[in-house]
Amino acid sequence: MARWVVMRSPEQQTDPQPELTVWAPHADGVEVEWTLDGQPSQRTALERRPEGWWAARLPAGDTLDYGFRVDGGELTPDPRSAWQPYGVHRESRWFEPRDFAWHDATWAGPQHGEGVLGAVVYELHVGTFTPEGTLDAAVERLGHLVELGVDVVELMPLAVWPGRRNWGYDGVGPWAVDDVYGGPEALQRFVDACHGVGLGVCLDVVYNHLGPVGNYLSRFGPYFSDAHHTPWGSGFNLDGPDSGPVRRWMVDNALRWFEDFHVDALRLDAVHELRDDSPTHVLAQLADEVGDLSQRLGRPLHLIAESDLNDPVMVTATADGGRGMDAQWDDDVHHALHVTLTGESQGYYADFAGHCRAMPEGGPVAVLAKTLTRGFLHDGTWSSFRGQEWGAPVDPGVVDARRFVAYLQTHDQVGNRAVGERISALVGPGMQAAGAALYLTSAFTPMVFMGEEWGATTPFQFFTDFEEPEMAQAVTEGRRREFESHGWAAQDVPDPQDEQTFLRSKLRWDELEVDEHARMLRWYRDLIALRRHRHELTDGRLDGVQLDFDERDQWLVMRRADLRTVVNLAESRWTVPLDAEPSEVVLAWEPSQTKLKPQALYLPPRTAAVVRVG
Fold first, then answer.
1. Residue 11 has what pLDDT?
2. How many CB atoms lie within 10 A of CB 579?
3. Mind telling me which Pfam families this protein's record contains (predicted)?
4. Cα separation of 257 and 158, whole Å?
């Protein structure tokens, strides 16, 4: 691990002299091979430091490229490299984050300093968000997000990966910003621009594994351990001998995004695969250190976990024995919405159709009602997909529902389908509008996936760009085998390695003002505006949310204060009963056909409305 210490003497305040340090506890010698401003390369031996560290100070210059050789071995990128302009296999480039001129000195954090909880989050993939696929190009679209009502932009991983295109989860340089997106300074420009228009930034980071190509950490030391296994192989060494510097490599990475790049939150990928039997789990350590940094910086900093555990311990404070995450993604809400709207019940969707061990007394509408009021379906109940009882209950009187992120789509739930169809390709506009109404007026923190807000016709497919023939072939064949088992013909499954798979996934911004797309965009804008203007909708008390529903007649009403989100799922029924006399239609997908009735609402089938009662 290389750390940069900038040495400034009183007479040389503007000419920093970098010091490289790297952790290689079992090495007999370490050299750095470096090139300054295009001059011939040189080698410098690093001096041994305590606890397995090595260090060397190099001259200052405009462009410093370097790599390490451990015990005379191959040239290897810096494990803490911020910039890999030549790709994952070659030299790193020195980057000084403090050179950037920030304009966000008055930035207090998302929601005017309230933070991420209850905010409207917008997940995007930089490479497909715009035709150019860069962070600078994404800045040009921030006005759209502001008009939509977004509070926080969540970027899928930026860590350097092999090739020119990737979702980001095959990254092997977690400290770097991929050069395809513009490199590290482009991220600083993006965050600065977001803060300038009132948007927070959440960065998706991957600490549970590195990708299969370009992972050279083991050349330096015991970063991985056979004591724990993950779906990607050996897990990180978080609790064995020499684990202290590995934990620091991980925690320091997170702190750096907050401090040097001014991000407001991190989304931590699949934290259930961070296997750690230490007395203090690495997540709890991270939470405590981020809390300390938040106090020092004077603005809210948040950690959002992706967790498959369905356990509120993830969002319980470390002082109370929890992991200390501020929020976590809630796939159960997605699955319940998806099954109710689409009728799909294959694979892990099966339990969410109800009439099973997890929900014996009801069908999909009953499942949806449970998730909207209790967070999880699997909260100690049987999970047929996992083959065991799973999860733990959420106490609605104790746990803030804003700690659960709810959504109708995510990169996973779209991109991990065989052909990457969005919800707008699976159901009619009215049904998508109903799903949006439910999660955007729920007690949870809502998240919109890029393009969802206008019913984008472009898919979001799985794509890679491995240059090694064996790896490329393995990815292509593996993807096809996976979906052949579900009845898909191999030729119908997009090849991740084909550039067209990537290009098909780029958003088409010319759709925004066209017919049904413009209508859907207005619906999302209106729902988000309602959420912003009615504080009851950002109240995270689950015990203040009631659901009325009828499985047979296919309707559902979510009660929040004097607002009712009314969903008619039926094919023909027009009248939905209410618990009180309605006084106003606040929003309706079919406003001209939505009518107030005595203690009921008359609205078209397979649509939704929000009404006020009393």
1. 38
2. 11
3. Alpha-amylase, CBM_48, DUF3459
4. 12
CA distance readout (Å), 536 to 119, 156, 258: 13, 30, 31
Token couple for 369: 């009602």
Cα(401)–Cα(543) distance, rounded to whole angstroms?
Answer: 9
* Across 276-288, average pLDDT: 97
Q: Backbone phi, then psi, for 56, in 5-degree steps?
A: -150, 140
**Beta strand pairing call for 42-45 and 47-48:** unpaired
Give the tens place of pLDDT for each residue, 214-224.
999 999 999 99
pLDDT tens-digit profile of 548-574? Answer: 999 999 999 999 999 999 999 999 989
pLDDT at 427 > cutoff 90: yes
Angle at 589 between CA 586 and CA 590, to 5 degrees: 100
Task: Reply yes or no on whether the pLDDT at 13 is more than 50.
Answer: no
Q: Are 427 and 470 in contact (CB under 8 A)?
A: no
Tokens 């990966």 correspond to what residue? 161
Distance CA 450, CA 445 (A): 16
Query: Counting beta carbons within 10 angstroms of the beta carbon of residue 20, is it exposed (0 to 12), middle (13 to 18) or buried (19 or more)?
Result: buried
**SS3 of 30, please?**
strand
Whether 502 and 165 have beta carbons less than 8 Å apart is answered as yes
Q: With 90 as the cut, is the pLDDT of residue 6 above it?
A: no
Mean pLDDT of 466-495: 91
pLDDT for residue 486: 77
**DSSP per position, 276-291:** --SSS-HHHHHHHHHH
Cα separations in angstroms, 271 against 7, 291, 309, 425? 37, 19, 9, 31
Question: Which secondary-structure segment (H or E) carries 431?
Answer: helix 429-440
E strand or H helix at 466, and its extent? none
pLDDT digits (tens, 9 = 90+) for 97-143: 999 999 999 999 999 999 999 999 999 999 999 999 999 999 999 99
Query: Which of 239, 269, 331, 452 does the annotation list as catalytic?
Result: 269
Secondary structure (3-state) at 243: helix
* Whole-Å CA distances, 5 to 8, 54, 55, 91, 332: 10, 13, 10, 19, 45
pLDDT number for residue 16:
67
Q: Cβ(365)–Cβ(556) under 8 Å?
A: yes
Angle at 355 between CA 352 and CA 358, to 5 degrees: 60
- In the chain, pLDDT over 90 holds for what percent of residues? 95
Q: How far apart are CA 518 and CA 520, in angstroms?
A: 5
Catalytic residue among 273, 306, 326, 412: 306
Rounded CA-CA distance 120/100 in Å is 28
In single-letter form, the type of residue at position 531 comes to R
Among this protein's residues, is 154 annotated catalytic? Answer: no
Is residue 51 among the annotated active site residues?
no
Cβ–Cβ < 8 Å for 351, 358: yes
pLDDT attached to residue 487: 82
Q: Tell me the mean pLDDT in the region 276-295.
A: 98
Q: Which of 304, 300, 207 is nearest to 251 (CA)?
A: 207
Token representation of residue 58:
């190099």
What's the first-to-final CA gap in the chain, in angstroms? 63
Q: What's the chain's average pLDDT?
A: 95
Angle at 159 (CA atoms; ends 154, 161), nearest 5 degrees? 125
Distance (Å, whole) CA 418 – CA 490: 10
Give, for 245, the enclosing helix (H) or strand (E).
helix 243-261
Angstrom distances, CA of residue 569 to CA of 19, 439, 526? 64, 16, 21
